[in-house]
Amino acid sequence: MSETKKVKDLKAGNTVDSTFLVMEKELKEFITKEGYYLQVKLGDSSGSIWAKCWEKAEEVASLFEPGDVVRIKGVVESFRGRLQLIFEPEGLERSTEPCNIAEYLSMTSKNIDFLFDEIVQTAESMGNEYLKQLVFSFLRDHDFINSFKKAPAAKIHHHNYIGGLIEHTQSVVAICETISRLYPELDRDLLLAGAILHDIGKTAAYEYSFRIDVTEEGGLIDHIVLGYRMVEEKIKGVNGFPEELSLRLLHLILSHHNYGEWGSPVKPLFAEAQALCYADLLDSQLKEFTQIQKYEETKGKEGVWSDYSRRLNRFFYLGRGKK
Amino acid sequence: MSETKKVKDLKAGNTVDSTFLVMEKELKEFITKEGYYLQVKLGDSSGSIWAKCWEKAEEVASLFEPGDVVRIKGVVESFRGRLQLIFEPEGLERSTEPCNIAEYLSMTSKNIDFLFDEIVQTAESMGNEYLKQLVFSFLRDHDFINSFKKAPAAKIHHHNYIGGLIEHTQSVVAICETISRLYPELDRDLLLAGAILHDIGKTAAYEYSFRIDVTEEGGLIDHIVLGYRMVEEKIKGVNGFPEELSLRLLHLILSHHNYGEWGSPVKPLFAEAQALCYADLLDSQLKEFTQIQKYEETKGKEGVWSDYSRRLNRFFYLGRGKK
Amino acid sequence: MSETKKVKDLKAGNTVDSTFLVMEKELKEFITKEGYYLQVKLGDSSGSIWAKCWEKAEEVASLFEPGDVVRIKGVVESFRGRLQLIFEPEGLERSTEPCNIAEYLSMTSKNIDFLFDEIVQTAESMGNEYLKQLVFSFLRDHDFINSFKKAPAAKIHHHNYIGGLIEHTQSVVAICETISRLYPELDRDLLLAGAILHDIGKTAAYEYSFRIDVTEEGGLIDHIVLGYRMVEEKIKGVNGFPEELSLRLLHLILSHHNYGEWGSPVKPLFAEAQALCYADLLDSQLKEFTQIQKYEETKGKEGVWSDYSRRLNRFFYLGRGKK
Amino acid sequence: MSETKKVKDLKAGNTVDSTFLVMEKELKEFITKEGYYLQVKLGDSSGSIWAKCWEKAEEVASLFEPGDVVRIKGVVESFRGRLQLIFEPEGLERSTEPCNIAEYLSMTSKNIDFLFDEIVQTAESMGNEYLKQLVFSFLRDHDFINSFKKAPAAKIHHHNYIGGLIEHTQSVVAICETISRLYPELDRDLLLAGAILHDIGKTAAYEYSFRIDVTEEGGLIDHIVLGYRMVEEKIKGVNGFPEELSLRLLHLILSHHNYGEWGSPVKPLFAEAQALCYADLLDSQLKEFTQIQKYEETKGKEGVWSDYSRRLNRFFYLGRGKK
Amino acid sequence: MSETKKVKDLKAGNTVDSTFLVMEKELKEFITKEGYYLQVKLGDSSGSIWAKCWEKAEEVASLFEPGDVVRIKGVVESFRGRLQLIFEPEGLERSTEPCNIAEYLSMTSKNIDFLFDEIVQTAESMGNEYLKQLVFSFLRDHDFINSFKKAPAAKIHHHNYIGGLIEHTQSVVAICETISRLYPELDRDLLLAGAILHDIGKTAAYEYSFRIDVTEEGGLIDHIVLGYRMVEEKIKGVNGFPEELSLRLLHLILSHHNYGEWGSPVKPLFAEAQALCYADLLDSQLKEFTQIQKYEETKGKEGVWSDYSRRLNRFFYLGRGKK
Amino acid sequence: MSETKKVKDLKAGNTVDSTFLVMEKELKEFITKEGYYLQVKLGDSSGSIWAKCWEKAEEVASLFEPGDVVRIKGVVESFRGRLQLIFEPEGLERSTEPCNIAEYLSMTSKNIDFLFDEIVQTAESMGNEYLKQLVFSFLRDHDFINSFKKAPAAKIHHHNYIGGLIEHTQSVVAICETISRLYPELDRDLLLAGAILHDIGKTAAYEYSFRIDVTEEGGLIDHIVLGYRMVEEKIKGVNGFPEELSLRLLHLILSHHNYGEWGSPVKPLFAEAQALCYADLLDSQLKEFTQIQKYEETKGKEGVWSDYSRRLNRFFYLGRGKK
Description:
6 copies of one chain form a homohexamer. Helix content of chain A is 40%, strand content 20%. Chain A is an alpha+beta fold. The longest helix of chain A is centred in the C-terminal third of the chain and has 27 residues.
């Protein structure tokens, strides 16, 4: 009997009748005969799966576009160690019910509105009126808020899901709050403005309307320079913004990856810039570590050691009591 | 007229009559004639200076030892771009008044008792009784407290002064508190115990009774393995301390420099160990950055750029309004 | 007809009736249906193979544990380019005959007792009574001898077999004997004591009772610090062991990987420590090289060049006359 | 007798009466007594020298500013292996005659107008009207031309003199012309537009009105991002400039240092960008090599080998017939 | 119906009747039964494919050798994602018609005779008679010309096809011509002689009669030292060749990979050697980049980004209008 | 009173009357006046010192050449922290007595004839007649023996003295003897032939008749390729020397620095080549370590730690009982 299932629960042999988001669509030539089959990447909040339709490929392909939600009836197969979903031409139907695409994408487990409020509160605590006005020129811009609450912080690495950017930003802000308590000689407002704005270029560097991918600008210009431009543009709108403060803030954006080999065209040349680097490093690397460790833990491997992780170049210690 | 002056205020041409701490004492052969002169490193809380006595070197040398406080009458000279203090054999007198040697060493600008209380409060907030008991077996050991409140965190790099260790430790603890709020899935008690104990090997790796230097153990074994041994020893005193918890905590100590090339014999194999690395990195590197930037700022160089800093491989931006 | 075969002689299509050592045992969920199958890693002195039983998995699994010797009747299949052994539930029988597990593990080709005698002779030639007494506190400790003669020197890299540790140790001792003839200014006894003891932490860092794997201590603490602790413990048992000598010997253990990135928490700070590094490097790297070259030679590839070796990042020259 | 001499011809003992450009001016505290002396960096087209006036420092300092031309009467001394010029308060006189400051700075040995014409000819040969229009929006902008003809290409490394930028640019253009003949599949116009514009950010990254130094923008933002912004600004003025072409050209600017560790925030992602990298590398590195080799050759060292060059980490072969 | 097809046009399911060049021939043991099958690597100018014959392997294998051209009738299959050609014992026939093996190998798309003429013209323009005579001792040696026009410049990387060496050489010569115009202080003849001869060792380092592979000398000695020897040998034949010039030219050959880690036993010690390095780097790296980019473009992937290229460690930007 | 003294015993203020070897001679322009002074580098077996004659420089310079032995009467001065010898024009006299220049150069402390005999004995033990004949074609060539017994193994690093090459060679041979006992699968004769010949290129790479310096060939070609050529030349003189054996032996010479960045144009491709690398590494690095440690020990610094050694990037542990 066909069932409504999430991607992560699919098993070979299941018959499926569920709605998914179309992330990619491609007509592929057969290797062994003339003609095309249809290959579709389907996703929901729990993951994604490749689906194939062997017949009437062009006709079926014309019924929908990436970004649509479709109802699929089909069968799950195992192919070269991975699962795929096979469906007949009549097994795909474009969903016409209104739906919230965000529900089909994987998302932060934290409360986005709470994260946003935390950031706003930090902004409100700033004493420097220029920086405060600048930060609020973003935080009160509805288009920006919209993107800022949805964007991921990466395609593959840490925080690679809807809401990843704001989750990461709030963490960096929180760490910088701690830093400014421990290092009272730093310019707190400059550091916090940098923390709030450091990654906003990611709202343009990724597409995340119905899948997470790198945009042309994201690949060719990168989020650091994109963010620099966005901040520079808004500074022009703040009357009397001091020139040195502007240079310092832009430098925080540009240098926040610390080293050239990590993507920053300049290295930090004063302490607030250096502080931001380490706050960003701490949160991005620790999140990546925990995401990969979690992935290894869910594999259910016996013994205290995980499989070898190529991305982190080590075995994780899973411990004895992991059950 | 002779004056009581601090080391940092000495100028060529001054005649001096002040008390200093003897940090090093050495008889040196003359290059141009037979015999020896006496060379002494003198210090107070503001810095240190080399002093020389050209005559009756052996006799004068027999009057005092490193660690003594001496009263010196002499003259400041400039020699190859550095200052030195020249005194006559009768210009040195061993001080017999009781004195607090700590007053002659450079020291943290933070309140050491406050830092200690902060750490104790964190320890008191722990829920895991084994870890709490272990941490307090250090924090209630008077010999340990004594060393822990005095030790530096380095000879040359960051926090290289009396109280440097406890200042650094409290910062790492504070950052780990923030981390454990942002990452509730981490074992808070393990992380905080690691933060409190991570550098305690430095109490044995440095000598700091009357100067800061590396001990034999500090050089040949290093603070990481020394700290590991100290923690392992105390764990034996905690009844029923779980074996896995013991391995995890010892691993935090051993891996807290993250990479082999930074001195850790193992790399972090679970998330709390990784978190501790970045908290330690943040505070140690940021402190080093601010110490070096401050040093460059005090030089009073004209223009917005500092001299080139070889240690950090960059020019600092000092800004326009530094006066 | 079923045959008694060694792992290395198995071919697809063979029916097998042999005894093997169970190295791992795991119940695995079917992908395509409910329930579990049984997966077992079987080994003998010539290698290891995965075996699978598709039915009554839980029941069969309850009959034996890793470390047991079992008699298996089954069929060899080729699956994704590798061989596997398929057996029926009744095809597995726990062996109850007494047997020497060591016969089922791959082992050094050298004579272990000869190697041990060589090391003992070197120890006997020592002039420094403290070092001699210390070394014999290991070489006359029966538990230690037992482990020392069995332990491997690695799980994957060089000398990764029973007796690997003692084989490697004897080579390092022999090289250090040569060094001490060429460099008479070195302290021969210190160097040789270091050579004998440098890797003894491996007796605790690996498990090798019925398979070779990394222990919890081995992964979280590593053999260098484990060996350091073992030596430090025994030094306490030697009356009047000089403090400087103790620091020097412990430093040899800790620094013997030469660089932090190779696992040593300190680098060599005097010549005997440096000498030990290169002796260890020579034997470990040369053994690894010959093991990998040998592996490539046995593939029977045509032409003078081996396949590309990723581990050594080169093609081997096999020569013209390799047949 | 006082003489009019160029900096490079000064010798200890000379009395001098010449005009120089003031590059830096600083009041410095005496070490050995109260008060200030005046320190001035003087230059002409052949080099620069520090000059000092021991008396009436504040008064003399008020007579002129950096960027002025002064007539100095004084005496050359050798001090710690370097020459310095000592003058009396009345030995300095601000020059009031009109003068061409450029004559006081070191300059390219090539003809700047010829270099500019070569670049214009290349621009005229472009077939793509958008790129051509863009390039000429720079090459016909008089303010830009002015800066472009004067700016250096570096403060310390290659082409570190007036006209260095245009000399380097013309070389890169010439190499890219050759490349586009050898690789006809590349987009010639895109590559040449990139070659012409790749370093224009240097017109803002350096100050070169009366000395060569890094500007605030140059240090905090760097020439790559500055150039990116200048090009982006001008693109807005070209009607209908295609979006993809714009992204490609901006990518050439941003990626032209090839690697992050050499300052590029993105690496080259298509062939024209990669080609530009190597053309830039060839000219900048080869110029640096020849400048340093020339410097070593002028030292007149005996034998075929130069002194060790730390900047290039080698001895140069000067050859036998260098006289 | 069987068809005459090029390798690049083969599809699974095709029946084939074409002639191919035999590049490799090997008897392989069956895994699942006794005996051997025959495995043959077949190629033509468009690529290569593995072919297999399951029966009478030894008999069929005796009919031909690598380097022969054979006519094959067989069927194309897909196996583990790659195509292979299956033929019956009677489906292979050794071609006895005279044929040009070069037609079966992939080849430069440029005109080899044109490239050679360009190089000769450069040689003719040389003013230094010793260098000119030396260069022509190669360019008029028929055996050398033959090899020089056929040899590849690599097995796997850039210019890995017949004529690759001469194509690369002519490019390097052209770039060096441009360099010598831009840097008139360089010794043009020395630079151009180096450019012409820098890679001639590749004529001995590769075999390319019927496939491209590394020779024994190529692997064990490498093309740099092989080329050095060839040049040194010919210098002996030039009467009165100046000793210093000889050392300089040989140094150009030896140092042309710039760094030890790129294969040069010495680094460039004067400007002509450094210039040659960058000319060689430019052409070899740019060609490799364009070859890999071209390969990715032909995959027909949707969207603006290529697959991830491991060799160049990036995604290529393919652009919007690639169809 | 003037005294006959060795260089290492000179002190400021001494008057000297001794014979020295002239290592360098140079006329230098005065900075502060017209004309030249004479600068001479003088040496004996204990070290070297710069000497200066302020008057009649040209005349005095014409009396002798580098390589001559001279008798000097003069006075030792301290100048910028170094000693120099000042003499009058009449204080220099060219020695006409026959003398052994080798007595004026620093030399190995081992017995050169003993070292040579050890090597000859190893050569005599070889079973492979081709290799044996080849090795003796060197060891019985009187010109070669002469150079081989005198040459240093370096200018600055390890074994940088007369006899350094043969001392190093004998050590490498001894280590390879040990290796071939431990690894009986290696080709002992090939390894030992490689050990004996690996550095013979140094006989041409250095000049050592009256000072140690790098020759033109040494700098431009380097000892590895020079040695390769010498061996290749002699192989031609051995009738029927097998081609593969020749390639293997030449590969040992070329690859013996292991990595490209250490100067080898190829990396080791079979086990004997790899073994030679580690034997060479062990002896060269250990000798360098002991030479630098010894240098630090002779400074007589107080305390257990040496000064910081930049060449080895560490402090040495000198120990407590060094007096």
